[in-house]
Amino acid sequence: MSLFKNIFDYILALILLILLVGLIISMILISSLDTKEFGLFTQDRVGKNGQIFKIYKIRTMKGIQKDTITTSEHRITKIGQILRDYKLDELPQLINILKGEMSFVGPRPDVKGYADALKGEDRIILTVKPGITGPAQLKYRNEEEILSKVDDPIWYNDHVLWPDKVEINKDYVRNLSFKNDIKYIIQTIL
């Protein structure tokens, strides 16, 4: 499964990057004008086997972008919000897939302090490449909205969302199949 998944990811990412390179460059330029900073944003994330890698995204916020649960909404630009709503800010992650750091489907790569702190059987999540989409991302596709409605978003993330995501991602890894990956890709597109 792993070799087939890697080949599928690489070929699909290459095709999509060729087809979407103009759109990605346009979004980088628009984001640069909108945020007054270079429109391609990188951040350290935890990947397979706990390895740290740089994730690529379109910049959606003014100032120093912290793509974490503590992000304040007022710093997201109007254009940035549209990019986030349609997940267009994540298109540069096709580069991460081509570099072998990510997959189309898998647990979302987290910032340091979460995935790298997993213990015991929870570390099974780190045995696969992180993904652009997956079952936890689909369940919590409106995570920013959920966190904006609670009094203490950090507590809520750490004690409600994160533990649930860990369980969802463990189940994903235990039942890893190409058929499921295709299902998650289709659900993401729809």
Task: List the topology elements.
Layout lengths: L1 H34 L4 E7 L5 E7 L19 H8 L7 H6 L4 E3 L25 E3 L1 H5 L3 H6 L4 H22 L3 H12 L1
Parallel strand pairs: 3-4
Antiparallel strand pairs: 1-2
How many helix segments? 7
Q: What's the count of strands?
A: 4
User: Structural class of the helices, strands and pairings?
Assistant: mainly alpha
Identify the strand order in the major beta sheet.
1-2
What's the SSE pattern? HEEHHEEHHHH
Q: What is the helical fraction, as a range of percent?
A: 40-55%
* Proportion in β-strands: 5-15%
Biggest beta sheet summary:
2 strands, antiparallel
Radius of gyration (Å): 16 Å
pLDDT below 50 for ≥5 consecutive residues: which ranges? none
Shape: globular
Distance separating the two termini: 25 Å
Mean pLDDT: 92
What does this structure look like?
The protein has 190 residues and is mainly alpha-helical. The protein has one domain (2-189). It is 49% helix and 11% strand. The protein has 7 helices and 4 strands, in the order αββααββαααα. It has helices spanning 2-35, 78-85, 93-98, 135-139, 143-148, 153-174, 178-189, and strands spanning 40-46, 52-58, 103-105, 131-133. It has a two-stranded antiparallel sheet with strand order 1-2. A hairpin with a 5-residue loop joins strand 1 and strand 2 (52-58). The radius of gyration is 16 Å and the shape is globular. The two termini are 25 Å apart. The mean pLDDT is 92. InterPro entries: Bact_transf (IPR003362). It comes from Faecalibacter macacae. Keywords: Membrane, Transferase, Transmembrane, Transmembrane helix. It holds the Pfam family Bac_transf. Belongs to the bacterial sugar transferase family.
